[in-house]
Write a structure and sequence with these properties.
Elements lengths: L1 E4 L2 E4 L8 H7 L18 E4 L2 E4 L12 E3 L12 H8 L9 H8 L4 H4 L2 H4 L11 H7 L23 H6 L14 E7 L5 E7 L1 H4 L4 E5 L30 E2 L5 E7 L2 H10 L1 E6 L6 H4 L18 E9 L2 H7 L2 E8 L12 E6 L5 E5 L4 H12 L6 E4 L16 H11 L3 E4 L2 H7 L5 E10 L5 E13 L5 H8 L2 H4 L6 E9 L13 H19 L3 H8 L24 H12 L13 E13 L7 E8 L5 E5 L8 H13 L6 E5 L15 H29 L6 E3 L3 E4 L2 E4 H11 L4 E7 L5 E13 L5 E11 L6 H20 L16 H4 L11 E4 L22 H13 L10 H9 L3
Parallel strand pairs: 1-5, 6-17, 15-16, 19-20, 23-24, 30-31
Antiparallel strand pairs: 1-2, 3-4, 3-5, 6-10, 7-9, 7-11, 8-10, 12-20, 13-18, 14-15, 14-17, 18-19, 21-29, 22-23, 22-28, 25-26, 26-27, 29-30
InterPro entries: 2Fe-2S-bd, 2Fe-2S-bd_dom_sf, 2Fe-2S_ferredoxin-like_sf, 2Fe-2S_ferredoxin-type, 2Fe2S_fd_BS, Ald_Oxase/Xan_DH_a/b, Ald_Oxase/Xan_DH_a/b_sf, Ald_Oxase/xanthine_DH-like
Family: Belongs to the xanthine dehydrogenase family.
Pfam family, one: Fer2_2
Amino acid sequence: MSCIVDGRPIDATPLPGQCLRTFLRDQGSFGVKKGCDAGDCGACTVWLDGEPVHSCLMPAFRADGRQVTTIQGLGDGDALHPMQQAFIQSAGFQCGFCTAGMIMTAAALDETQRGDLPRALKNNLCRCTGYRAIADAIHGIGAAQEDVAGEACGASLRNPFGRDIVTGRAAYTMDVAMAGLLHIKVLRSPHAHARIRGIDRSAAAAMPGVVAIFTWEDVPRRLYSTATHEDHLVDPDDTYMLDDVVRFVGQRVAAVVAETEAAAAAACRALVVQYEPLTAVFDPEVAMQPGAPVLHDRGVTGGSNVYARIRGEVGSVAAGFAEAEVVHEATYSTSRVQHAHLETHGSIAWRDAEGRIHVRTSSQAPFIVRQKLSHVFALPVQDLHVFTGRVGGGFGGKQEMITEDLCVLAALRTGRPVKWEYTREEQFTAATTRHQMTTRVKLGARRDGTLTAIDLRVVSNTGAYGGHASETLAASLGTPISAYRSPNKKADGAAVYTNIVPGGGFRGYGASQTTFAVEAAIDDLARTLGIDPFAIRRRNMIRPTDWIESIWSEASDVAFGSYGLDQCLDLVEHALASGRGAPRPEGPFWAEGTGVAMAMLECGPPTEHRSGAEMRLTADGGYHLAVGSTEMGNGSVTAHRQIAAELLQCRAGQIDIDIADTDRTPYDTGTFASTGTVVAGQAVALAAAALRDSILDYAGRHAGADRAACRLEAEAVVCGNHRIPLAALHAAGTADGHRFVARRKAYLTPRSVAFNVHGIRLAVHRATGEVRILHSVHAADIGRLINPMQCRGQIDGAIGMAIGWALCEHMVHDDAGRVVNPSLRNYRIPSFADIPASEVMFADTYDRIGPLGAKSQGECAINPVAPAIANALADATGVRFAHLPLTPDRIYDQLGGAE
């Protein structure tokens, strides 16, 4: 087959049945991404003779004699295509994994299509941005500002990797070519609970291309948890790399290593497994009953499926309810959902000539992964090198060690590099999810709305394994309760094992689920009392003179570094009252309602979290920054460079940066729990300040000037009347033996709190259950905005994800525990048409704890959105829909059918 790819003649023969996407990647066109291989996401979009196509659906042979244009050939040499430039100016990407396909679609739109983006972009999905910045890019609305020395913080600077992202040159985990690369495929359990009595591998081992087969008998028998935390004791060691007992449909049974993915997959199908089915349990309430089948018998749970139980009380809720004039009690539940980051889980491992193992992986916590690999394989930690390329989204889903272990095992046993990349179906059936939680809320109040008692019962379905179970449960009983003042608070929470795909870390991390319940209950109480929803929140919300107190009487390191909840409520209330947004649709069946919800989130987890940063002055007068946190679309790289530039009085563009590499960067616990700015950013600030002082100290000595008379400029130090270029100062210092380098560490204590308020005006069709969001308003108190454009983008993305959680996303399991909708098409994350443009506003605060006044922003915005939608729906209909998602069929069943 002969074709032209990005102006290059290609003469190659596709494999039988090969799609154009994999063929192009075989030719080195790594800008063509895999998000689904089913035509659902558009990440693989290319032009075929100028027309956009999903290359994963196009047989490669159909490109014969034709011109193929990928993102790497869209521009003209070094000159960017106007659409590529527009995406940089508007920050039309975050992780950037969808960006190549999105730009290829957008660049082909005509004027009419640009006027109807919901239709024009229906085949391109983005999980990060909430689509608002993408629309801005297509319409030429740019917010990026120039990089000015001394004015870095507070400026909407461009992403330093933007050019590589929009041209397809940014290297994600799988975007490398390696000689001799082997591939892993995994046979997965068809049973929710079974014991493996035998595996016949003879037929599989004899198949062409098969190099090795691993079962539970071939792997280290060391228990561990896939969850990655600094304190490994918060997660149960309940997992083997491969086990002789399977506990959910989709669990690993055996791994095949072969020359090609196809050969490995065929060999998996040839394995013959003898299973002894065991009784399964899917409902956590049933799993807690005496006589229920116990999933783990190794002493983790003491003969019970309750992995973790948290109980606490401050004051006396019995006395509080006795004092109450009104009591509201109801049960609310949230669904099990998937992260759906467009880059699936994957790793590549190899052993070098010195025997060290290198692991290139898509991880939010490469340093913790290294520790876990050291434990599992009994290897010295210095023999392991773990690093990330660019990570295509995480949202907590990559706070796990999911693919790295089998890749390392295969590399050790075969001596060759090994790759394992999840399919989209595996993401649904074998990765982690948000914990499904059911929350009973009981509130007591006086007639004026003052709360006298808060009592919660939370049951969390952790699935077959307990990673993140106790920590998400603790978070669910933390800030959602702490946000309200009451002298009497009590909660009882249980995290329960069931035979369902495991839960894990997810944006909002447990607080989202109970924020939904508490905020719905507060609204229900307000309706009972005839009190305005804003008024009842103002009466009971935490204030800056209060203790931040949930159900534990022990002292905490959580403190008010700043306080802007009152501003957030005011901003949202005024915006909703403005009349802005879309009008209610015409027709007698449309009902309109308004809802509000608020949320408070601690800036980081209560367990240990630490980060280091190193800064150097380089010989050319620039700077180099090394920090161990991962960039996955959260914007940490941009923020870190801006923080350093602010302190060094230079341009952010003068700072080169290395990230997330256990060989090249200082230790970092991981980029999760909203710590990228408040911990890693604090380490950067400390290192930059120390380097600044080192430069000024030496400059004063070198110039014979008082240190106080010296100041840094963008490219020089000024000492009195002397101006010394930084390159010259570096040369002089090096000759004198002075080292212009500083390394500092930051620890997550004390922890500030961020606030978010969301307001919704919507219309619901009372006969069909259709919901249309007419006005979406969000106000955030995140301290000083390091990069306003980026901060808004993070909130837009969180709102978009929350709307999906509220209205459509739901992993459905059948009676045997199988996920029945394991694809983007049937699970349906929001597309462009589903997400309205939100008004995003910020409280005017400066945090005394966070770096340069900043607080966490990445995940807290997700928490109040779903309850605001549910509250607006209740306002419109007079009916409480207490269980997510609020899909049309559920609304119809409760409302439309009767009408």
